[in-house]
């Protein structure tokens, strides 16, 4: 039996941005299903039902979607939030490690999206909100693999949105900047570190730890996610931070050479 409420499915909802988004969607009137790889260990959130889901597993995705449909009979919003960070020079990550990161950050989004699209097309309505990043629009030295996943999500999401509009389904991107979560602490370190990059990597990790500590509250990003999920005429991109809005404007208006110089200065790289 279909739920009397609209239903939102939020991946990676046990902490950080995902937890804040799940809570905010409850307040916006949704029946919210949050996912975690270990739902039994997730901290309870009022109004949120947790289920197990590993976005890197096709069978796990299919089982989770089947469960949601058996209980609620509909899925109105999918928030693809689950992801993993990574750091280190690009050369320091093996191909296998890069594939694992893409399997979560990119193919995880594709798995969930493909699983819910037949449902949303049949409903002739639905909203897919994909978590990108400010690093989906700018480069970030010593986070090349992670930035590549977010650039991929940008291209995938915008293209998909054009395909789905005729079916009443829209896709939106939310682009957080540095957010005060456990992101940096939980990021994957490069699996084949090289001495030649050691000092630059150390400087970057100090910079990133401080940036995350001073970052936005997850509630700021959650507000953008709710807007992306509920706006009658959604934008393709929502800045999940005032920093993202500023950087996006700079990327468009500042001369390439000047932007390049500022990026290197910010990252304490030689001119």
TrEMBL record:
Belongs to the short-chain dehydrogenases/reductases (SDR) family. GO terms for molecular function: oxidoreductase activity. It comes from the Bacteria. It comes from Agromyces albus. PANTHER family: SHORT CHAIN DEHYDROGENASE, SHORT-CHAIN DEHYDROGENASE_REDUCTASE FAMILY PROTEIN. The keyword Manganese does not apply. Keywords: Oxidoreductase. This is SDR family NAD(P)-dependent oxidoreductase. NCBIfam families: PRK06179.1.
């Amino acid at each position: 039996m279909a739920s009397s409420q609209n239903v939102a499915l939020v991946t990676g909802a046990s902490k950080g941005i995902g937890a804040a988004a799940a809570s905010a969607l409850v307040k916006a009137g949704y029946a919210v299903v949050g996912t975690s790889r270990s739902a039994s260990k997730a901290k309870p959130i009022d109004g949120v039902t947790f289920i197990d889901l590993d976005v890197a597993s096709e069978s796990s995705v299919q089982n989770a979607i089947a469960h949601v449909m058996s209980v609620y009979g509909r899925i109105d919003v999918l928030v693809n939030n689950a992801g993993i960070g990574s750091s280190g020079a690009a050369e320091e990550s093996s191909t296998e490690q890069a594939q694992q990161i893409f399997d979560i950050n990119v193919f995880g989004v594709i798995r969930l999206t493909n699983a819910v699209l037949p449902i949303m097309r049949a409903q002739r309505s639905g909203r897919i909100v994909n978590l990108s990043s400010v690093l989906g629009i700018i480069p970030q030295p010593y986070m090349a693999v992670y930035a590549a996943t977010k650039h991929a999500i940008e291209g995938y999401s915008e293209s998909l949105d054009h395909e789905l509009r005729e079916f009443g389904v829209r896709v939106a991107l939310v682009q957080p900047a540095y957010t005060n979560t456990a992101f940096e602490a939980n990021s994957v370190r490069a699996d084949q570190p090289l001495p030649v990059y050691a000092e630059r990597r150390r400087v970057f990790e100090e910079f990133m730890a401080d940036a995350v500590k001073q970052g936005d509250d997850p509630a700021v990003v959650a507000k953008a996610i709710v807007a992306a999920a509920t706006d009658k005429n959604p934008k393709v991109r929502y800045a999940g931070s005032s920093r993202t809005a500023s950087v996006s404007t700079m990327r468009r208006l500042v001369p390439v050479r000047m932007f390049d110089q500022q990026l290197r200065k910010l990252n304490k790289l030689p001119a």
